[in-house]
Amino acid sequence: MTATPETNEHRFIIQPGTLYLCPTPLGNLGDITLRTIEVLQQADLIAAEDTRRSLKLLNHLNIRKSLVSYHEHNRNEKEGPLLEALRQGKAIALITDAGMPGISDPGTHLVVACLRENIPFEVLPGPSAVLLALAASGLSTERFTFEGFLPREKKKQREHLESIRQFPHTLIFYEAPHRILSTLKQLAETLGNRQAALGRELTKRHEAWYRGTLEEIRQQLDTAPGDPKGEMVLAVAGLDPLERRQEDAQAYDHLTIQEQVTRLMATGLSKKEAIKETARLRQIPKREVYSQAIDLEEP
């Protein structure tokens, strides 16, 4: 396959000494953009997470270019030579195995280095498993947090989930197939059995979606024939506002009004803000809280 715009008038011309972050297809090679193809055709050098996988894409596009590996385990070794090539005027295309370079990917370190060295770079739009999963999840898309891969150590995983448990917006996770069942179990135990959507093999022939509560999705995978396969993206609903109010109220129900206002001020709220929040949590008039907290001093 050779993809070239019909005229040179609209052809994207890359600039020397510039790093280009080029998103690549998640699975369907037809999803690559013309602009990414043009950059790959013109680049002096292509830095790839896995040169073997990237070579298949480049062969499909009939592109023959110098290819170097750049991944998490060799980034410290490769960063210097890549920056030097950029300083010498080389145009470099950075690609990952699938999706957007720099998202759960060492490409972010190269971007930081370019910023530090005042080397120009450009990010091209294109495929992103994060946004695809969010749009397909059926969950709220107004706000979301991308969590990437959870820590592998159970204690750290639990601690991290506790730190985000009260987030009211949709959470997006990446996960490997051999860990997905245990991760779903941990999510349900820590966050509660929330609504979620799990996508695997996105844009590929065997793309599949599992929807329901976290426990229902785990059961669907557990009873499916064979072991879970393919890269996975999981979208999980944020904490329901009503549930959050109930949790907030329970956290303070053993305190007096004065103690609650004092504790809220210790978190950084002003006395006025703490009184208002106490009234909201207890669902009582502000004047009732004010009458009992009037003698409290600002921290």
UniProtKB/TrEMBL annotation:
EC assignment: 2.1.1.198
Enzyme class: transferase
Chief subcellular location: cytoplasm
Location of the Tetrapyrrole methylase domain: 18-217
A Pfam family annotated for this UniProt entry: TP_methylase
MF GO annotations: rRNA (cytosine-2'-O-)-methyltransferase activity
InterPro entries on file: 4pyrrol_Mease, 4pyrrol_Methylase_sf, 4pyrrole_Mease_sub1, 4pyrrole_Mease_sub2, rRNA_ssu_MeTfrase_I
Compartmental location: Cytoplasm
Catalytic activity entry: cytidine(1402) in 16S rRNA + S-adenosyl-L-methionine = 2'-O-methylcytidine(1402) in 16S rRNA + S-adenosyl-L-homocysteine + H(+)
GO cellular component terms given for this protein: cytoplasm
Alphabetic keyword roster: Cytoplasm, Methyltransferase, rRNA processing, S-adenosyl-L-methionine, Transferase
NCBIfam families per UniProt: 16S rRNA (cytidine(1402)-2'-O)-methyltransferase
Similarity annotation: Belongs to the methyltransferase superfamily. RsmI family.
Job of this protein: Catalyzes the 2'-O-methylation of the ribose of cytidine 1402 (C1402) in 16S rRNA.
This protein's name: Ribosomal RNA small subunit methyltransferase I
Organism of provenance: Anoxynatronum buryatiense
